[in-house]
Hints:
The chain has a domain at about 20-50 and about 70-135: Alpha-Beta Complex (Aldehyde Oxidoreductase, domain 3), CATH 3.90.1170.40. About 25% of the residues lie in helices and about 35% in strands. It has helices spanning about 30-35, 70-85, 115-135, and strands spanning about 20-25, 45-50, 55, 60-65, 90-95, 100, 105-115, 135-140, 145-150, 160.
Amino acid sequence: MKWPSSRRSRAAEPVSNPVARLVLGPIDAAALAAEVARPDRGGVVSFVGLVRDHHGGRTVIRLEYSAYAPMAEAELARIVSEAGERWPAIVAAEHRLGSLAIGDAAVAVVAAAAHRGDAFEACRHVIEQIKARVPIWKREYYADGSVAWVDPTAAAGAAPAAAGQGPSR
């Protein structure tokens, strides 16, 4: 038996009112999922990016995210809208700004679609595009006392930052 492809529904109407926010407090992934849940959406996929305790072989003790919020939030909304146009999915995304501890949620993306394939693809697309396009800067603080700005689009990732020096982009 050949299973129907979820790709056949690509021509569905775009979903309006995308949820795309920058937040200063903790991210609640369950609440974000509730914002996209619908009775006709059987597949709900989420991605939550947590602050890890290492990067590039170095021990990370905390990090800070900063952004020019109007620009970053507008780009985040564009990405979420694009996903809603490309897949028959409702997508929500939040990215946290400010100081974060190890284990804190830094970003969350939730996609709900009638079928799991569309939900997985939309969720993956959104997180990859957030990393590539949204102008959010990450500054890592290391156990040895050093600090570095991290470029999510660079192959090596981190570039040392002098005291008071901002990111390059």
